[in-house]
Structures are given as C-alpha cells and as structure tokens.
Write a structure and sequence with these properties.
homodimer, alpha+beta, Glutaredoxin, 3-stranded mixed beta sheet, 5 strands, about 25% helix, about 10% strand
Chain lengths: ~170, ~170
C-alpha cells in the first residue's frame, strides 16, 4: 500500500527578495543551467578557512555542545548587497579571526523557524543565537525597518555585535 | 528591550544511533577536536562529481522547480554501515550516473520534518520525494523493521528504487 505524506513546509517555500537592492526588476530566483564549480563548499566565499555547518539543526546541536554562539548569515548569490557584504566580511581579518569563536552557518534558503525572521525574510540578514538556544533579537544593526541587515559600511558595528554575542546569556532555569 | 525567542526545535535534537551497527558500544555523538579538512564539501564522499544541495528546504525548492525527485541520504561519519554503503554508492558508476537525475541531499543531522522518518531515525536511511512534494514511503529496501535502510549488498535494489523514483507520480489536483 502506498502511503503519501505531503510535506508540510511546502507553503513556506517562497523566494526571498533582496529587499535592500535598488534593482527590484528581478524578483524571481531562477534555476540556472550553469553547473556550479565542483565540489561545492559550505563557506560560499564568506571565509574559506573557517568551519561552516551545513544545516540549522547541526548549528544548534553544535552550539549547545560547544557552548559557542551561532552566527547565521542569510544571503543570496544574485543580491548585490549580499555580495558586497560578503566581500568585506571575507577580507576583514579581525572579523575572520573572531568568527572562529562562533558556530557558523550561511544560508540561501530560509528555514521553517520563524524565530530567524523576527522582522521579515530579507537578505542580507545576520542573527545570533546563544548556546541556551535563545535568538539574540537584541543584537541589531542600524536600520529600523530591517533590524538584522548590514551594509558593507556597517562592518565595524557587525564586529562589535559579534563581541556582544560572545558574552553569553545566563541560562534561566 | 530584550526579546527572547526560545528555539522550538530544541527537544528534537537527539543523537541518532547507528542502529544497524553491531557495535553498540559508542552511542554518543562526540564533538571531536580534530578540524575537518578545509574546505568542507557538500558531497561528503557520496559522489564528489555530483551536485549536492545544502539543506532540506533547498532540496524541496529545487525539486519543485526542476521536476526532479529528491534523494535524501541520512548517514553518520562514525557509523560503519553508513561508511560501507557510501563506499559502494560512490564507486558504482551506474548509480552515480543515475544520481544526476535527482536533487541530492545527504544529512548527518535530522530535520524537524517527521515525514522523513516514517519508521524511525536510524542510519543509513534513504528516502525519495516526488516533485509533487510527496514522500515516497512506498520505495523501500529489504528490512521490514527498517524500511529505508540499505546494506552494501543491496546496491542493486537501491539502483532499482532510484529508477522507480524517477517515474514521477501524477499530481492529483
């Protein structure tokens, strides 16, 4: 007997617009026919010498086990704001050094956890999670309408926010 | 004001035992201090020349867009049964060729979607999802107590099951 289990997250699979972009002409995420360079890496250019986790579930598990906070970068390859931030992030030696103290994850597809989009699903968007598995919604950038967005010129603020995230919350039990 | 959003999936983060293994001595997944070889790849040795997706959400999105079925391999690095199956899978030319027709995902951490564990969270475990986003619970291996497990000697059955998965279901609308 054939058992059909429809996948529940179907409705959540919406394309993520690069809402910081001035060019609103291309909203659709296209499947390109160009093959990616093989093998594909988890860093995607955000720091090839750093250790990146594959999935959100892995990141949470490792955070809890290692007592390191999670840093999650949501981005898109065809979003110029994401690309510009990535360049600055990857070339910033202090950021790269400090990033070693985090469980790192970069994602181009949204998870189903709404805690990761407190004010929407725009990119680029950077969130921190404490090892107590609390989303640090208090660690924000400069833009009141997109609290977790950073422009390349905000890299020092991002660095300061990474330092803030490393001061772990006390677990309230 | 600090806003705390506790991550809901916390309780689901349980270690996955390699239930096919005869050696039941090491049940705990350990954080090793050994750094992985950099950069980490998405293939993890299951086929370095194939294109692998990073996350479940990405796999579903690409399946729907490309009309290819998803093949999800759950495995663990320290599970000898997973390792043995991987070796045979990676060296099997017909399997590797046929795998190009799938949206591929290999995972060492479970997702939160219960549709992916119809009879438990053991490894190795291989499931197919139709582009209509239906889990193909009807495509099974030889073991009645672990329907989606394959041993290296089952590689021909796995090949046949991949062919079966490529005959797409009609969407019932």
């Amino acid at each position: 007997a054939m058992e059909k289990s429809y996948v529940s997250m179907f409705l959540l699979l919406i394309a993520i617009p690069c809402t910081l972009a001035k060019d609103v002409g291309k909203k659709e995420t296209k499947e390109t026919t160009v093959k990616p360079k093989l093998p594909q890496t988890l860093s995607r250019g955000w720091g090839d010498q750093l250790i990146w986790t594959q999935t959100y579930e892995e990141a949470l598990y490792r955070s809890k086990n290692s007592n390191k906070p999670v840093m999650i970068i949501h981005h898109l390859d065809d979003c110029p704001h994401s690309q510009a931030l990535k360049k600055v992030f990857a070339e910033h030696k202090d950021i790269q050094k400090l990033a070693e103290k985090f469980i790192l994850l970069n994602l181009v597809y949204e998870t189903t956890d709404k805690n990761l989009s407190p004010d929407g699903q725009y990119v680029p968007r950077i969130l921190f999670i404490d090892p107590s598995l609390t989303v640090r919604a208090d660690i924000t950038g400069r833009y009141s309408n997109r609290l977790y967005a950073y422009e390349p010129t905000d890299i020092s603020l991002l660095y300061a926010n990474m330092q803030k995230a490393l001061k772990l919350l006390k677990t309230e039990l």
